[in-house]
Amino acid sequence: MDNKAHILSTATLPQPLIDKMKAAGIAVEVLPFIKTTWVNDEKKRKQVAGITDKTIVFSSKNAVEAVAEMTKNMLHGNIYCVGKQTAELAHKYFGDQIQAVANDATGLAEIMLQEKNIKSVTFFCGDIRRDELPELLKKHKIALTEIVVYTTIVTPHKAEREYDAILFFSPSAVESFFLVNKVNSTTILFAIGNTTANAISNKTDNTIMVCEQPGKELLIDDMIRYYSTINKTIS
């Protein structure tokens, strides 16, 4: 009898994380529900090269990767990031310029508002981005320049089986998944952060487990601990 937990990841995962789940007795299927593409044409490169703001915001690793490619890692300013992994990647490419990190966009905006010297901000983002940070900054009269450096395309798939748990890493993946799928009432839904959890709660009343700090590995560690606690993965 197969008593392993069967998990669906709605985003690609590094092989070490897949191996980590397998070692914990968890069967995982990886089926990406979104695709991201960098915007890296001449017009966009000139726009990025011409920024004059000293304050820069990244809300995702995708934005960091796209800007690093366009600038050849030559970006200078006071950098603010949503998520620990976003900050770690920004530090890798742009050095010791990270000023603050928060778990979500609202938290980051609140940190920035406490710093009275910030008058203007450049926000590197995707074409589908949350409104919280831009609205809070604009509400407090901080000039905001948004530069879209990647696009997100939904790639919905019909799930072929029921899962014990599903891992969600973005609101866009939530939207893509529920376009063509429903979930069993007993399926546990793991969310990488509060905005993703809110997107899930708009689709279903299932139990949602929210990662305290955004990060793929942190979410998977939470999920492994959850199943270790209920002894579901013992075979």
Please outline the helices and strands.
Blueprint (H helix, E strand, L loop, with lengths): L4 E5 L5 H9 L2 E5 L3 E5 L3 H8 L5 E4 L2 H11 L6 E5 L1 H11 L3 E5 L2 H10 L5 E7 L5 H8 L3 E12 L10 E4 L2 H10 L7 E4 L2 H8 L6 E3 L5 H14 L6
Parallel strand pairs: 1-2, 1-9, 4-5, 4-7, 5-6, 7-8, 9-10, 10-11
Antiparallel strand pairs: 3-8
Helix pairs in contact: 3-4, 5-6, 7-8
3D structure, described in words:
The protein has 2 domains: 5-33 and 155-229, Rossmann fold (3-Layer(aba) Sandwich), CATH 3.40.50.10090; 36-152, Rossmann fold, CATH 3.40.50.10090. The chain contains 9 helices and 11 strands. The protein has helices at 15-23, 42-49, 61-71, 84-94, 105-114, 132-139, 171-180, 194-201, 216-229; strands at residues 5-9, 26-30, 34-38, 55-58, 78-82, 98-102, 120-126, 143-154, 165-168, 188-191, 208-210. The strands form 2 sheets. Strands 3-8-7-4-5-6 form a 6-stranded mixed beta sheet, sandwiched between helices. A 5-stranded parallel beta sheet has the order 2-1-9-10-11, sandwiched between helices. Helix 3 runs parallel beside helix 4 (84-94) and helix 5 packs parallel to helix 6 (132-139). The mean pLDDT is 92.
